[in-house]
Known about the structure:
Its cofactor is Mg(2+). It holds the Pfam family polyprenyl_synt. This is Prenyl transferase. The chain is an all-alpha fold. Strands 1-2 form a two-stranded antiparallel sheet. The chain has helices at 7-20, 26-37, 43-55, 63-86, 98-101, 104-123, 128-150, 159-183, 189-216, 219-222, 228-231, 237-242, 248-254, 262-271, 275-297, 304-315; strands at 91-92, 95-96. It is globular. The protein has one domain (4-315): Farnesyl Diphosphate Synthase, CATH 1.10.600.10. The model has no long low-confidence stretch (mean pLDDT 87).
Amino acid sequence: MVIKSIENELKQLDQNLQTMIAAENPILYSAAEQLFHAGGKRIRPTILLMIAKLVDDNNRISTEQKRLAEITEIIHTASLVHDDIIDNCDTRRGVNSVHAIFNNKIAVLAGDFLFAQSSWYLANLNNLNVVKTISKIITDFAEGEVQQGLRLFDNSISIEEYIEKSFYKTASLIACSCKATIMLTIDNRNTQNDFYLYGKHIGLAFQIVDDILDIIGVSENLGKIAGLDLKNGNLTAPLIFALSVKNELYKLINQEFQFTQDTKKAVDLIKQTNSIQKAKDLAEEHIQLAIHIIKDKYNYKDNSEILSICYNITNRIN
């Protein structure tokens, strides 16, 4: 996704990230740098930079808002390092994950280092309310991982519980960082809350689409092994919807996909239902809620680029 109006800002962001993650220990630096060299969609900083422009009368992005976009990407990357260890994922964005190249201990330390770096830069924004808002993300990450860990291979999980877990693991980061971006320049609680909700719905839609791609995608497109969520016992929207019509899935879940063909069989069963479409409809509901916020209250300006971000999320599975 290329947004022309912030192309220069994103290039500068990539350059700044290399400086911000510098470490004296070469192993630690190499481990932390691994994911940044692998690239990524930069969807989170793109969203933050776009909403910063949208709410400013002169379409300007402050230095603090640019730095917050960088901080958010570091936090996101740190969470990926830890996620790959927990999920036993050996590839990320098409390249070997940090723990696969080094080991789990180095990967944990690299993730901790990135969290520490983001905290230091966050403190230097000298805005206590922003610090409080962004700090909540770290707590939510932990809550989401615990919830997911407790519900592995649990075929009683509901869509509501899945959405709650998805908020903690993914949507909280976008929601809180969107709110914090507004807090840096606008002292209006209603506007701050509008963009919190915008970020929340975008984040939930993004996670649901990722979970659909885990079922229908191929490894080359995902940058990781397709069906990994199922294999790890992480039951997502397409499977949860399919459980009501394919009883065979209960057996596969109860035996924790222990046989080689079990994951493929589960994917085939899900594809025989309308569950993927139902999951896509759920993602679209959240996209429309996000769009409504922008169109309803911020249609007095050119909001086409930020709306294109919304549309592109579900287009990934078309």
